[in-house]
Amino acid sequence: MDRSKNSPESESARRPWLKNINAKIAALPMIITALGIFVGCSIWTIVHSFTNSRLLPKMDFVGLDQYERLWSTRRWLVSIENLAIYGICSLILSLLIGFTLATLLDRKIRFEGVFRSIFLYPFALSFIVTGLVWQWILNPEFGVQKIVRAMGFENFVFDPLYDPQLAIYGILIAGIWQGSGLIMVIMLAGLRGIDEDIWKATRVDGIPTWKTYIVVIIPMMRGVFVTALVLIASGIVKVYDLVVAQTSGGPGIATEVPAKYVYDKMFAAQNLAQGFAASTMMLVTVAIILVPWAYLEFKGKKRG
């Protein structure tokens, strides 16, 4: 009688879900609790976004009225426009700066650990602290503008947080300063995972370094770039702290963002249903970001 057919290894091979079954059972309570809270609260929020809830939630359904009111509100439309500007610029610049810093550090330069710590340090700060610091730096009374004028350039003007057309870019500066270090570390980890033989082969073939990065290295780091994109995009959707610390949404509503709109409607205006409708739209946005990423990741692993 062949005992190998009844061995645990053959059983796991025939039933993959039995692999690491003890670890899966141990993690089951945490998974159920997390899913229950997330899914339950999400469903509760979506349901009440179709009601007329004000100070307290109530099951007074009004259909799509809250969504119609939301998309006809200028403040919400401005917040979407600001998020688009902030998001596109942050996505491009964070990836560009982070990857550039990673390639420089990957050259095995001296004091690499010191530079890596310096570039990553801003990420250790809270967004509130970062926002306050950059509010001071960009303040025309004692920030960059005052320093440059003290050097003799009397006509120099640099006060983006006080210009409605430029205020969102002042927030963008702070966001990139804080987030680029994390992207640098992720990219550096990806670069360190590239086999040294690949670099040697490209040198033998006489391929320039810049072309090696574009043609060979970046395609090999697809998974790293996808992960970085998801992290940046999720941070963009929920940006709130920087805005509150730097401008509180001003001047006027020039730097309004969806997360601040939700908070103000739910707690300041005591209009729960309108806040629920706005937060549901944010949830849809996050789902649009995460679902393609999850599909690509799991599809890639399945093919592998």
Automatic annotation (TrEMBL):
Listed under GO cellular component are: plasma membrane
What keyword terms does UniProt attach to this protein?
Answer: Cell membrane, Membrane, Transmembrane, Transmembrane helix, Transport
Task: Please state where this protein is localized.
Answer: Cell membrane
InterPro entries (alphabetical): ABC_transporter_permease (IPR051393), MetI-like (IPR000515), MetI-like_sf (IPR035906)
Where do transmembrane segments lie in this chain?
21-47, 83-106, 118-137, 166-191, 212-237, 276-296
Give the record's membrane topology. Answer: Multi-pass membrane protein
- BP GO terms, sorted: transmembrane transport
Annotated source species: Alginatibacterium sediminis
Mind telling me what this protein is named?
Sugar ABC transporter permease
* PANTHER family registered for this protein in UniProt: ABC TRANSPORTER PERMEASE PROTEIN (PTHR30193:SF42)
The UniProt similarity line reads: Belongs to the binding-protein-dependent transport system permease family.
In this protein, which residues make up the domain named ABC transmembrane type-1? 80-295
Q: Which Pfam families match?
A: BPD_transp_1
